[in-house]
């Protein structure tokens, strides 16, 4: 197995337009440790609020938390807050740049049930939450609002079927006001003020610019997203060939984390005019390696790629494999055949798409 950086760039370029990523969780950096943080603005509290996680401001007045119960550290205008300020701006911009997969039909979030994906509200009207918003199933939820958010009294976000508050992110272009007695789940990353009024927040309240005002509320940092992280490892055999020769390709798809996959997995394998490859769905052993070809479906209609999909769950720290057999016919030439594999971003509900491509090569010579 050999990583080929140039080929990675070429493959990513070829994949543009074939499909869209399901999005990836923003890297909150230092800000991930905070339950309450504003890069620029006051941070204030009234009453006996409870905060689990760090809190602070990098540039603003910090007041009122002497009456609160805090499990965490306060950072005001120190190196930690400076780092968090930069990281929350980066995270906000990352969410803004994440492509939308579903446009919400109405600015009212209540009464809807959403599954994992990237949702956008593109009107100038404020978004509202009256009643209950249900988030169903594991995976990543990114909800992008192009204006302020106001939640009504006693409104709530309910998580069902394995959904986790750690996997929910709200990007808000404007202020966020959470109403009296409301229950909110997920991380708010706002470009504006945030008001928590006798609210229960299971997540974070983060602002790039704007005051955060807390009144008799409970805020609990939910920690890192609970998502899989898939990588491909590609094996070709033999790695050196002379003349027309049979060869094999095996692709292992590994989950690096302890969270299992929970969605369709799609893997692209590059084609080459010098090689013809075949897929036997009944094969269990190829190129000296165990494979599970029966759980994978091949779409061979694309001119540039063999496209493999599976809905099979890959356990945390586990892997699933598929293999192909092929014939390389170099003719009167010599050179290298590079086989590149790319896991499409968001496959299996993963949250990291920076390590989704691998490659191996065969050096061939005329006989």
Can you tell me about this structure?
This is DUF3494 domain-containing protein. Pfam families: Ice_binding (PF11999). Belongs to the ice-binding protein family. InterPro entries: Ice-bd_prot. It comes from Spirosoma endophyticum. This protein is mainly beta. It folds into two domains: 5-19 and 227-365, ntegrin, alpha v. Chain A, domain 3 (Immunoglobulin-like, Sandwich); 29-220, no CATH class. Helix content is 8%, strand content 44%. The protein has two helices and 34 strands. The protein has helices at residues 5-15, 79-97, and strands at 34-38, 43-46, 50-52, 54-57, 62-63, 69-71, 74-76, 102-103, 113-114, 117-121, 127-129, 132-136, 141-145, 149-151, 156-160, 168-172, 176-178, 183-190, 194-197, 200-207, 212-215, 218-220, 230-237, 240-242, 245-255, 265-270, 275-278, 285-286, 289-290, 297-299, 305-310, 319-328, 335-343, 357-365. Strands 1, 3, 4, 6, 7, 8, 10, 13, 16, 18, 20 and 22 form a twelve-stranded parallel sheet that branches. It has a seven-stranded parallel sheet with strand order 5-2-21-19-17-14-11, with no helix packed on it. A hairpin with a 5-residue loop joins β30 (297-299) and β31. The model is unreliable at 1-21 (pLDDT under 50).
